[in-house]
Amino acid sequence: MIRFYYHPTPNPIKVALFLEEAGLPYEAVPVDTSKGEQHRPAFRKINPNGKLPAIVDTDGPGSQNARVFDSTAILLYLAEKTDRFLGTAVDRPELLSWLMFLGTGLGPFSGQAVHFQYAAPDGLDYAVNRYRREIERHYQVLNDHLENRSFIVGDDYTIADMSAWGWLDRAPRIMKGADTPLVRWPNLTRFMALMNARPAVARARAVMTTHIFKTEMDEHALRALYPSNFPA
């Protein structure tokens, strides 16, 4: 059994998508980050970094409980555990390269773009521009790569596609003020239409709606989400 700790944000929904695609038995455990539940000692034992997602596999290696945190690590772990969505052996270098591109580039820059557009104090125009331009650059790199391709790696659907989908799905929020945020990148638009047609995508979205999370961005939420901004 997989215990899947989540908040309804881009990185956890990637893992929900894998679990639904693979048909693995799992328990979805909500962790409300706006309430600071990610900082509780019990959760820090699962992820010392206090971030979502995380999983505990009660049937890990040697039949021991295995904790895994960070969405890229979780996708790799589950793909290797099930031997699914990894592509071929020949695809492995490309798979790892694109997973790192997404996990260290597109994801973090998207998160920072959201932060500086919605949560940071007014007047930080340089930071807003910096992260928006980097998102656009990452979108272009991926758009160019997807020319005449259905999937990111090889000829089949892999965890790289799941990883990309998680953040591209939030383009309307990341590209604040854009009515059609991916219109400049037709291959990304086509890719997202292909992904959104998968039945497991609808099931993964449904998982994110099974718990009511705090939405008020009050001082308690700001302290929970950005503790380094509030020195003790």
From TrEMBL:
Organism: Acetobacter orleanensis
Residue ranges occupied by any GST N-terminal domain in the UniProt entry: 1-86
GST C-terminal domain boundaries: 88-228
Gene label: yfcG
Superkingdom as given in the UniProt entry: Bacteria
SUPFAM superfamilies: GST C-terminal domain-like, Thioredoxin-like
Record flagged with keyword Transcription regulation: no
Name of the protein: Glutathione S-transferase
Keywords: Transferase
TM ranges: none
Native organism taxonomy: Bacteria, Pseudomonadati, Pseudomonadota, Alphaproteobacteria, Acetobacterales
Nucleotide-binding is among the record's keywords: no
Sample GO molecular function, one term: transferase activity
